Amino acid sequence: MIKDNVQIIGLGQCGGRIAKEFENVGLNAIYINSDEIDMRGLSISEKKKLLIATTGTGGSPLKGKEILEANHDKFTKFMTEHMDPSKLQMFCAGGGGGTGGGFICPAIKLAKERGFKVGVIYTLPLKMLGPLAAENCFKTLKNLKQIELNTFIIADNEYLINKVGISSEWWTKVNQVIVQNVISIYDIIRPGKTTNGGLGSIDKGEVLRIMQSGKGETDVRTMYLSIQDFKLEDKDLMHKLFEPVLVEGFDYKTTLSYLVSVDVPIKGTWTEEANRIFTLTKKMCGSALSRPGMFVDPTLTGQVRVTMVNAGLKLPKVIQSRMNNLKRDEVRYKEKVSKVEKINLDDPGDGFMNEDFDF
Fold first, then answer.
1. Domains detected in the chain
2. How many whole angstroms separate alpha carbon 230 and alpha carbon 152?
3. What is the DSSP letter of 315?
4. pTM strictly above 0.70
C-alpha cells in the first residue's frame, strides 16, 4: 500500500493543503511553514508541524530561504526526527509562493544528504496571481531541475481549475485531483485484485521502479473506459488514453519507461480490449521500456480502468513556453530600466521623438 512506501512533507500553504489531502486518505504527513495563518483550520497535530516563523515571507522565495537558514538547527532536527528511511520522502510545494519556493530545495538537499529517496509534487500557480508568482515558480523550477530526484510530478493549477471549475471549494477540488491521481499508482497493487491469465500482473517493485525511472518528469493518469469507448477509432481512443490530467503538453515520445495497468470486471472477456490499449500505448510512447499488466477487479462493473505512469519525460511544451515568455519579459524589463537610466533631460531642440520616446 502507498502508506507503507511514501512519506508526505508539505511545505508552505499550497504544499500543506496538498499534504492534508494525502493525510485524509491515510498517509503520514508532516508540515513546515513560515506563516501561522496558513496552518489554521487544518486540524494538524502539533507533533507533525513546524512553524519556523509566524509572519510569512511576503511572497519571496529568497526571504523563505533566509528564514530557513536562520532556523537551520530547528529545521534539521524536525526533519531528522520525522523522515522515515524505509519510505520515499515526497515533498509538496506550490511554485508561486515564498515559503514553498524558498524551503523546497534546501529541504530536498537535506533529505538527500541523509541518504533518503526524494520525490516532489510541484504545482504551477494560476495566471491571475501575476508575474511575481510566475517568476517565483519558474526560477524555483529551474533550480529543481538541477537536482537528481527519484520522482518529479508537476501539476498545473491553471489547467486543473479549468477542469474542476470555479467554486467556493475549487482549491480543495484541485488538490484532491492531484492526490487521487498520485495514489492511483499504488491502487494497481491493491489487495483483492487477481491476475488475468496470460498477460501477467505488476508487483510493488515494478511500480516503484517505474516511478523512479530517469531524471525527467513523471506523469500519472487514471481513466475509465466504457464498452462504447472501445467502438471508437484508434485515434479517438488514443486521445482518451492520453488526455491530460495534471498538466498538458507532454510529448510522450520522450518517455523513458512506462507502466500501463488494465483493470477489468469479473464478467466478460476483455483480453482484446486490453491488447488494444497496450498496442496504442506502445505506439504513442515509441521505444520506451514498458511494463503492461492486467488485473480482474471485483469492484468494477461494465467498464475498464486504465492506470498509466510515464517516467523520464521532458518538461511539457506549455511549461517551456511559459518559461521562455518569462525570460523574454525579464529582458524587456531590463531594457526599459536601461532606457530610464539613460534618459537625458536636456533640451532636445528640434529633435524627433520616436514611439519609444527616444530622440
1. 2-187 (3.40.50.1440), 194-313 (3.30.1330.20)
2. 32
3. P
4. yes
